[in-house]
Amino acid sequence: MLVQLMLVPLTLACLGVYENGVWLTISSVLLWIDNLDVGLGNGLRNKLATYIAEDNEPKAREMVSSTIAMLTAIIVPVGVVLVLAESLGDMYGLFNVSRQEIGNLPTILVIATIMVCSTFILKFLGNFYMGLQLPAINNAIVTGGNTIALIGTWLVYISGSHSLLHVAIANTAGPLLAYLICFPVTFWGRYSHLRPKLSMVKFSAMKELFDIGAKFFVLQIAGIVLFFSTNIIISRFFSPAMVTPYQIANRYFMVAMLLFTIICVPYWSATTDAYAKHDFEWIRRANRTLNRFMLFIFLLIVFMVFVSPLVYHVWIGSKVEVPFSMTLLVGMYEFVLICSTRYSFVLNGLGKLKLQLLVTILAAVAYIPLAVFAVGQVNDIKMLLAVMCCINLPGLIINALQYQRVISGNAKGIWLK
Asked: CA neighbours within 13 Å on the CB side: how many for 391?
């Protein structure tokens, strides 16, 4: 949390408002690449938790080996196509970026894409540890990568180069280095019995992973449209410079999202384990604990909204002005998102994905046309943020209803899928 908050003013000091907005928009596109794993990471997480609960080590190793093989097969052709598109296409027109402001945009995109594609294969390690119900180790890897990125960005700052290319390298190389260090430590250390092996790559395991992974993949892509396309819409319809205040408000409320994640992510795989053992009483107790935690999150977000002017002043000074109305709307959006995700995590652990899938796809399909229409009618970024809040409300309501029906044993038809 601290590393992410420190990165904001440091990157802003390196790049300025305009280039920082461009980098944030590029980062959103890189997140699309990061989620092209057709749900294999989350599929591994669920299957590994199940097989470990059943003490079936050979099947667990098959899942690990088959996952890394499939991730490699996916990302290599995708990476080649993206690098060619970035080298030959009109990236300046796509991102609404001035050639005079940034003269080497295609080079930045190509290098960042290569780094992210390399990380793509290794990041299954996080899902591996979450499947083992060791989310703290996944968090440590992510924090380590972000810390390396922070140190790299600081070196760029003190060097005086203040180059967008150098900032992009620092931010994309950090996570890659963390995973490169963790891979041999994991599979030549304590978990050598689960080390990926070519002979353990099985078609049956691939099919098993893909059956559940395909659903997670569609959820991920729909989620990207809902959560990460906003930067591109702001850049296209307003200016790259407008992305910066929005992302500062977003990063500010990330404190609440990270606290939520720290507490709630372990419940995903723990629920899978409890469900495999038919321990429904544990799931009900966990629900009561999460309800109390959501009340704390609500009070935290309300407090954050009211103290935001003071926090912004201390955090970023007078470099960027973030309107109070923007902070309020982003806070509302984050709370709706957190509440919806709170139920999604448990439903994901139970493997109840079909209804989530339908609702999320409908929201994703509706979001961009509604956002573009709203911005076209009222040329105000607040209208876009209001659309973001409203589009996520149906998902929250349906997730909550499905959860209650599944846990009470009253789920039938689509509610059970």
From this structure: 25
Classify burial at 143, counting beta carbons within 10 Å of its beta carbon; exposed 0-12, middle 13-18, buried 19 or more. Answer: middle
Mean pLDDT estimate for the chain: 83
Q: Tens digits of per-residue pLDDT, 143-176? A: 999 999 999 999 999 988 778 899 999 999 999 9
How many angstroms separate the CA atoms of 216 and 237, rounded?
Answer: 31
Secondary structure of residue 91 in the 3-state scheme = helix
Burial, 394: exposed, middle or buried (Cβ in 10 Å; 0-12, 13-18, 19+)? middle
Distance (Å, whole) CA 226 – CA 218: 12
Secondary structure E strands in 55-129? none
CA dihedral (157, 159, 162, 167) positive or negative = negative
**Distance between alpha carbon 338 and the CA centroid of its chain, in Å?**
13
Q: What is the rounded distance in angstroms from the CA atom of residue 344 to the CA atom of residue 398?
A: 10
Tell the burial category of 189 from Cβ atoms under 10 Å away from its Cβ (0-12, 13-18, 19+). exposed
How far apart are alpha carbons 126 and 45 in whole angstroms? Answer: 9
pLDDT tens-digit series, residues 371-380? 888 877 777 7
Cβ atoms of residues 245 and 321 within 8 Å: yes
For 104, list phi and psi in degrees, rounded to 5: -125, 35
E strand map for 90-169 = none
